[in-house]
Design goal:
The protein has one domain. It is about 55% helix and about 10% strand. It is built from seven helices and three strands; from the N terminus they run H-H-H-E-H-H-E-E-H-H. Helix 2 crosses helix 5. About 20% of the residues are buried.
Length: about 130
C-alpha cells in the first residue's frame, strides 16, 4: 500500500472534499523517507537544481521513494507543495528543478535517455 490513510480522510475523500494540504500531509506521514529526500532536494534547488544520489538504507526506504515518484498524484502533490519539478532515475537518484530551470540544458540532460543509460550500474540493475 502506498499511503496510510486514516478513516476520516478516506471518508472525506469519498465525499470529494480532500484538499492538497491534507493529501500532502498524508504523503509526509506515510512515506517519511521519500518526504525527507524530496524536501531536501527541494530546499537546496533554489533557483536552479539539486540532486540526491545516495542509495536508500534499506528496501523499505527504496520502496517509499519508488511509490512516491512513480505515482502521478503523489509526485504532482509534492511538486505543487515544494514548487519544483522532480526528476527521477535509478531507484534513488532524485533531482528537484526550480520552475525556471525546467527548460534548461541541465534538465534536458538529466531526463534524457543517454543520462539514464550512463547512470546504470550492475548493482542497480535489479533495484
Amino acid at each position: 500500500m502506498s499511503l496510510a490513510v486514516h478513516a476520516d480522510l478516506l471518508a472525506r475523500a469519498q465525499e470529494g472534499v480532500v484538499d492538497d494540504a491534507e493529501f500532502v500531509d498524508c504523503v509526509r506521514v506515510s512515506l517519511p523517507y521519500a518526504w525527507e529526500v524530496v524536501s531536501d532536494v527541494a530546499a537546496r534547488a533554489g533557483a536552479d537544481v539539486a540532486e540526491h544520489a545516495v542509495p536508500p538504507p534499506s528496501e523499505a526506504e527504496r520502496g517509499q521513494l519508488l511509490r512516491a515518484l512513480a505515482s502521478d498524484s503523489i509526485r504532482g502533490g509534492l511538486e505543487r507543495h515544494f514548487g519544483v519539478k522532480l526528476a527521477f532515475q535509478n531507484c534513488h537518484r532524485v533531482a528537484a528543478f526550480a520552475p525556471a530551470a525546467v527548460d534548461s540544458a541541465r534538465y534536458r540532460e538529466f531526463v534524457s535517455p543517454l543520462a539514464q543509460i550512463r547512470n546504470q550500474t550492475p548493482e542497480l540493475r535489479d533495484c
